[in-house]
Amino acid sequence: MAGLAPAPPRQVHREAAARVGRNPVPCVGCGRSARAAGIIEVPGYGRRWLDRCRACLLATIDLQPSRVSGTVAEIVADLRAAGLAAGGSR
Q1: Distance of alpha carbon 24 from alpha carbon 44, whole angstroms
Q2: Cα 42 to chain center, whole Å?
Q3: In angstroms, rounded to a whole number, what is the distance separating the alpha carbons of residues 25 and 29?
Q4: By the 8 A CB rule, do 36 and 57 touch?
Q5: Residues 6+ positions from 84 with CB-CB distance below 8 Å
Q6: What is the rounded distance in angstroms from the CA atom of residue 1 to the CA atom of residue 61?
Q7: Measured in whole angstroms, how far is the alpha carbon of residue 71 from the centre of its chain?
């Protein structure tokens, strides 16, 4: 983590765009040209740039579990419950 470049105290969109622009920095995962630049907080090192190519970004992105019910019956039940909670009738 110490090898990551220091980042500014707040997200600066112009700086992030420059990191992946005409002369992109290398991806921290594989070394290819970065296409996404973000800032992470690294304990003991502070804010650092996390530059990733598309493949590494997709492989490491934090996907939250879906809150949508899995079956049509569950979706209908959820919608019915929401309608009743909002004051609807059966």
Answers
A1: 27
A2: 16
A3: 12
A4: yes
A5: 90
A6: 18
A7: 27
